[in-house]
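Feature request, filed as a ticket because there's no other form

It would be nice if the structure record came with a short human-readable summary line next to the tokens. Right now we just get the raw output. Example of a typical job, pasted below so the devs can see what we mean:
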Amino acid sequence: MPFIEHRQFVKAPIEVCFDLARNVDIHTQTTSHTKERAVSGVTQGLLEAGDTVTFEARHFGMRQRLTAEVTLMDRPNQFVDVMVKGAFHSFVHTHLFFEESGRTMMIDRFHYRSPFGPIGVVADKLFLEKYMRDFIVSRAKALKRIAENMV
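Raw output as currently delivered:
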């Protein structure tokens, strides 16, 4: 089961970073390269515990839908979203936030399991794990730019 962790310092208050990370509108803005859009569940504004959102996007040239549920919300320290339907066998994405000397450390922890058993494991090694890491890093950098431009 691949595990991706990315850490990003942001020169912005923890509450700003936290709310940007759970904002559906900002999510679609920071993933525009995949033409991501919210199509069901909470489709705009801030996600809360128990909310679900379905995103539609283009990955690997195919239109895909993924539904995630927010299973934990501890503002402004962490929230967790879990895939309930989509292309993965499963995933858990933990978003952690720590304030240090007026800056915020945002940490993404992404555990996932690919579909298709051994074929999925090969896909992870060949391209999927790198693709997912690049996706998470790109989004974190975009959140950083937005947050730092707000303060």
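Something like this underneath would help us a lot:
The first helix runs from residue 14 to 21.
Strands lie at 3-10, 37-41, 52-59, 62-74, 78-85, 90-100, 103-113.
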